[in-house]
Design goal:
The protein has about 180 residues and is α+β, with helices and mostly antiparallel strands. It is built from 6 helices and 3 strands. A 3-stranded antiparallel beta sheet has the order 1-2-3, with helices on one face. The protein is elongated, with a radius of gyration of 44 Å.
Length: about 180
């Protein structure tokens, strides 16, 4: 095998003090890891300061429980609606389109607060005939579709509006129709 010539001493290979390309990439990786670690530590510190500790959470829970208990006791002390009798009605309504007569029977109740009961009784006694007349007019003017509605929603709303208007104050909160029947003759 032939021997390779050795370079002359004045042409020796150069040695550099710079690190190799692999060394630079290792330093860049370490810097990135340190940067990510610093960001995570800052976020942990902010979360520690922002989130409540156990004693604060317990205090907040007990305050919410006290508030809920206070609301429940306030609801219990509030007056519950009571039902008052507005009368039994039998209304005859002629339907010219079908040349028939409807007989409509029902019992009417109103819901009021206990505080308004005394005032309601006084106003009802003074306006008894007007209240009956208003209810009769509403039922007579009702269409067959309104009378066949299972909830009688439109008729109830109209009766409620007319009763409160006749009384002069919105004392009646709701209307309940009981024993409702109508017969077409």
């Amino acid at each position: 095998m032939p021997k390779q010539p050795t370079p002359p001493p004045d042409q020796a290979p150069e040695v550099t003090t710079e690190s190799s390309p692999g060394g630079r990439s290792l330093l860049a990786r370490i810097k990135i890891v340190l940067l990510v670690l610093a960001v995570v530590l800052v976020e942990c510190g902010i979360a520690y300061l922002w989130l409540p500790n156990v004693s604060e959470a317990e205090a907040k829970a007990s305050a919410e429980a006290t508030l809920a208990a206070t609301e429940e006791s306030a609801e219990e002390t509030e007056s519950k609606p009571i039902e008052v009798d507005l009368g039994e009605f039998t209304v005859m309504a002629y339907q010219p389109a079908s040349n028939s007569t409807l007989r409509i029977d029902f019992h009417l109740y109103g819901t009021i607060t206990q505080e308004a009961n005394e005032e309601f009784v006084t106003l009802k006694e003074g306006n008894h005939a007007r209240l009956r007349e208003q209810v009769t007019v509403i039922v007579r003017s009702a269409e067959i579709a309104d009378l066949t509605d299972p909830g009688l929603g439109l008729i109830k709303r109209r009766i409620l509006e007319k009763i409160n208007r006749t009384l002069g104050k919105p004392l009646v909160q709701g209307v309940v129709v009981s024993d409702f029947s109508f017969i077409e003759q």
